[in-house]
Specification:
- The chain has about 575 residues and is mainly β.
- The chain has 3 domains: about 240 residues, no CATH class; about 150 residues, Immunoglobulin-like, CATH 2.60.40; about 160 residues, Immunoglobulin-like (Sandwich), CATH 2.60.40.
- The strands form 9 sheets. Strands 4, 5, 6, 12, 13 and 14 form a 6-stranded antiparallel sheet that branches. Strands 25, 28, 31, 33, 34 and 35 form a 6-stranded antiparallel sheet that branches.
Length: about 575
């Protein structure tokens, strides 16, 4: 076997400075104390020939040290980075979007750091065993995909960056896919030409001194990819630019702003990202899609639970994971690929794998991987508590985060709170639970509630915004598209799309009610403004109101008005 020429550099003591143009000092350069390695660029793709229904790629990377100290890059010890590569797909299935991981690689072990200036102005480390402050180091896809030299994932504690060296090296075949980022051919499809499916390559560095400095949560970056060829062998190519210091799951919320992402930082361990999205399927049915990405937690996840109200009917329960391969597990035996079992209890739906005590090869959600959970329900969403159970024994035993869950209260549910559940208020002016952001009257923020029934044949729905300033000028706003919270005056707005000003009112004692007296019903007013609401159509309501106090939350980013929480209304026939 021919050894890549780069291995010769690991033995030299001469300064290794690439003759590259010096990049302008970026805003992140030197911003982290200690060593801080990131994926500065995803540079190229190696496409392997498919084998037995499995395709594979390798991705080239250029790492950058954004910290204030050199990063260890000592090839013959465990004081060097390991490099992971993943592939994800966004696809609309039966009207609802899914962001899933399709494949994972074994680990490239770093050696012989060069000293370039891709991200920052380089201050060379000088001996090839350290990546200097501001310096960059390239590995092309051939090196990151050099099959015989790749090590398994299971020996790495990504929270601490500690791993076994030299890594396990079980026997393997001679095909082109083993140990690379393996993907089932059946999961690939040609992009473009009206096809909305998209692919994303992700790379992540893990190393001990970076983790010791507390800089391990920015070590993943992603880049979009196109897919061509088929039907038995595909080729992926890079598209656009590298999105630095973010795992690929962040793009799910960019593609679909109604996706909610919550970071779960596990004490004395690593980071997970929890995502949720409820999609209106029509006819009173909703699809619920969840994703948990384990960036670097060594404790892993073993259960996931969603609250389900009594009387809600659940159908089409699903689960999706990513396959370990080529002996990636203790004793060179792959971790289990058995799907997590879903169990519906009195008030919850829970997926679980075997516990650590039952099976140390169980299909726990390990570092660098993402699992998906899904179902359909005959209930509109509300904000609720999602629970992730940690697989390895320790404290805490669970982590929780807010997300979309089937509603407890029928066709009208609250959302878009200013209490900090999903997004921070513009001036740190968090409101009370289930209210909008705090206002200058210190009421805890305006709270929008409802009475009556949103029925198109007998509309008795009435909304009330309380907790405003005493005589605030107020507008009841309706939209037909839900977005992630954005700053709107002193508050947060989650209502978008076809926006209509349904009613204009003045508060009395800080309270506004609509409709009242001779006002038309909400559905009639909407129709008069050009938005005829269909049966089972969803509309979003918020009230924004004047708050002209010049001292409270001044512009920027605040303004002279604030916003209530929102109501999500599913109109019945």
């Amino acid at each position: 076997m021919k050894i890549p020429t780069r291995t010769l550099l690991s033995t030299t003591l001469l300064p290794l400075v690439l003759a590259l143009p010096v990049a302008a000092q970026g805003p992140g350069c030197g911003s982290s104390l200690g060593p801080d390695v990131i994926v500065g660029e995803i540079t190229d793709v190696l496409n392997a020939a498919s084998f037995n229904g499995i395709d594979a790629i390798a991705l080239g990377t250029t790492s950058c040290n954004m910290g204030t100290s050199v990063v260890n890059w000592i090839g013959n010890t465990n004081d060097h980075p390991v490099i992971r590569q993943n592939l994800y797909r966004y696809k609309i299935v039966n009207g609802a979007g899914r962001f899933e991981q399709l494949g994972l690689s074994w680990l490239k072990h770093g050696f012989a750091s060069l000293q370039g200036s891709t991200c920052c102005t380089c201050m060379p480390g000088g001996d090839g065993q350290h990546l200097g402050v501001g310096c960059s180091d390239p590995y092309d896809s051939g090196l990151n995909g050099w099959q015989d030299a790749l090590g398994p994932n299971w020996q790495v504690n990504a929270a601490t960056g500690v791993f076994t060296y030299p890594p396990a090296n079980p026997a393997h075949g001679s095909d082109g896919v083993y140990r690379r980022c393996e993907v089932p051919v059946s999961d690939l499809e040609v992009t473009g030409g009206g096809n909305t499916t998209r692919f994303f390559g992700e790379c992540q560095y893990v190393t001990k001194d970076d983790a010791t400095a507390g800089n391990q949560n920015n070590n993943a970056s992603w880049r979009e990819m196109t897919c061509s060829g088929g039907p038995t062998n595909f080729n992926l190519a890079l598209l656009g630019s590298t999105h630095r210091e973010d795992p690929a799951i962040r793009e799910w919320a960019v593609i679909d702003p109604a996706v909610h992402l919550v970071d779960l930082q596990i004490p004395a361990d690593g980071l997970m990202v929890l995502g949720s999205r409820a999609t209106d399927l029509g006819g009173g049915q909703w699809h619920y899609e969840y994703a948990i990405y384990n960036m670097n937690s060594d404790r892993n996840a073993g259960t996931f639970s969603v609250p389900i109200p009594s009387g809600v009917t659940i159908t089409n329960i699903g689960f999706h994971d990513v396959a370990y391969h080529d002996g990636d597990g203790p004793a060179n035996v792959n971790f289990s690929g058995l799907d997590w079992i879903a169990t519906q209890g009195t008030n919850s739906l829970t997926w679980a794998t075997d516990t650590q005590a039952q099976n140390d090869h169980a299909n726990a959600l390990r570092w660098g991987s993402q699992y998906n959970f899904r179902f359909d329900a005959n209930a509109a969403p509300a904000s609720g508590t999602l629970t992730v159970g940690l697989w390895k024994i320790g404290a805490p035993g669970v982590m929780t985060g807010a997300g979309d869950v089937p509603a407890l209260g029928g066709p009208v549910t609250s959302f878009c709170f200013g209490s900090g559940a999903f997004s921070s208020c513009p001036c740190g002016n968090s409101g009370a639970p289930f209210h909008g952001c705090e206002n200058s009257a210190s009421t805890g923020g305006a709270q929008l509630t409802s009475t009556g029934t949103p029925s198109l044949s007998n509309d008795t729905l009435v909304v009330t915004s309380s907790g405003e300033r005493a005589t605030a000028f107020s507008i009841v706003l309706q939209g037909d598209a839900e977005i992630s919270p954005v700053t709107f005056g002193d508050g947060l707005r989650c209502t978008d799309g076809n926006l209509k000003r349904l009613y204009v009112k003045h508060a009395a004692g800080g309270t506004v009610t609509a409709p009242e007296f001779l006002d038309p019903t909400i559905s009639a007013r909407s129709a008069a403004l050009g938005d005829v609401i269909p049966a089972f159509g969803t509309r979003l309501l918020q009230v924004y109101y004047r708050d002209p106090d010049p001292v409270f939350c001044p512009d920027p980013p605040g303004s002279t008005f604030n916003v209530s929480n929102g109501l999500r209304v599913v109109w019945q026939p």
